[in-house]
Amino acid sequence: MLGLLVLAIALGGCSCRTEAPRTNARDNERWLVEETDALGGTLRLKAYPRRIVTTAPSNTDLILQLGCRDRLVGVSNYYGYPELVEGIARAGTFDQPSLETILALKPDLVLVARGIRMEILERMRGFELPVFCLDTVSMEDLYRDLATVGRLLGVEDRATTLVERMRGEIGAITETLADLDERARPRVFWLAQEEPIKTAGPGNLVDTMITLAGGRNIAADARGDWIDYSLETLLVKDPEVILVCADMGSGRVPNDEEVLHRLRADPTWSQIAAVSTGRVHVVPTDLIGQPTPRVVDGLRLLARLFHPELFIE
Fold first, then answer.
1. If you average pLDDT over residues 229-255, what whole number do you get?
2. What is the C-alpha to C-alpha distance for residues 164 and 146, in angstroms, rounded to an integer?
3. Which of 26-40, 215-229, 267-281 is predicted most confidently?
């Protein structure tokens, strides 16, 4: 898990290259950076950001992995690795960012994620905050977003190196699984939320990771990438592996044995193959459900859970 962080540390601080600003012929404005975000908004900057606020844990991770911790002045309240952002102001949650705190921090970049409430986004824009929104669903989206943030921060080379390393490590994992027979790929269910049951549908990053790791997402035929799922359907699909989402920033996380014991005590859940055979695993959301370079470690973890015979440590 520490591999990518070691890379970020090795790359050092975030000194910016000096580039000639581009000129907009229409209004004669000059800027160093111009990027269009996931919502179609255009952000133009005359200098690389030095004071960054992130409102989503995934965006915090992108900044850290690019070696730019020294530019973070505000992060979301909940982050799975609090020791890495010690001393940095907390700027509220993804659902409820603190606009008062963000304004007081005087950021030159506020990095948000799609799903932020539009009224909050509009208020930020009303205060002329330099907001940029990412929408990372697939693995290719993640590579693209790393490149985009690299350009925004003036660290394109670091972003390119990180993406190349990720592609190489993911390629090595998938190559090991390339000859798997379809029947050898276990039926997998991602239990993102228990009451009501929610899971990852087709196109979701989790769905992609389950497939790359040599599994079959039983919700891959559903409609939508983040869906409600009935217990009745779960019984019919009968997953052989259940992955239980664990938010590492929310306090104590139960272990595999505790969750398995609870599910086995339930007369319905106990009928599912994964529960009866003990293939229930608590998996950190930080590694699987959040679009950051940590997905490489998450993919390696899933591959070992699905096919321990192929990934002997």
1. 84
2. 11
3. 267-281
Secondary-structure breakdown of the chain: helix, strand, coil percentages, each rounded to the nearest 5: 40, 20, 40
Distance CA 136, CA 138 (A): 6
Number of neighbouring beta carbons within 10 Å of residue 165: 15
Of 208, 190, 209, 213, give the one whose Cα is nearest residue 200: 190
- Distance of CA 9 to CAs 47, 52, 63, 143, 297, Å? 24, 18, 12, 20, 17
Q: How far apart are CA 58 and CA 248, in angstroms?
A: 13
Residue with more model confidence, 310 or 3: 310
Closest CA to 114 of 93, 128, 132: 132
Given the structure tokens 């970049």, which residue do they identify? Answer: 109
- Of the candidates 233, 222, 209, 175, the one whose C-alpha atom is nearest the C-alpha of residue 284 is 209
Task: Calculate the CA 108 to chain-centre distance.
Answer: 23
Say how far apart CA 82 and CA 110 lie, in whole Å.
20
DSSP state of 255: -
For residue 122, count CB atoms less than 10 angstroms from its CB and return exposed for 0-12, middle for 13-18, buried for 19 or more. Answer: exposed
> Following CA atoms 19, 130, 294, 87 in sequence, which dihedral angle do they give, to the nearest 10 degrees?
100
Interatomic CA distance for residues 177 and 214, integer angstroms: 6
| DSSP line for 198-231 | EEE-TTSHHHHHHHHTT-EETTTTSSSSEEE--H
Q: Where are the alpha helices (DSSP H) in the chain?
A: 3-10, 57-65, 99-105, 118-126, 139-153, 156-176, 205-212, 231-237, 256-264, 273-277, 285-288, 295-306
For the whole model, what pTM was predicted? Answer: 0.85
Does the structure show a pLDDT above 70 at 10?
Answer: no
> What CA–CA distance (Å, rounded) separates 114 from 128?
19
Q: Which of 248, 292, 284, 288 is nearest to 8 (CA)?
A: 292
- Residues linked to residue 226 through DSSP beta bridges, in sequence order: 200
Of 79, 77, 133, the residue nearest 102 (C-alpha): 77
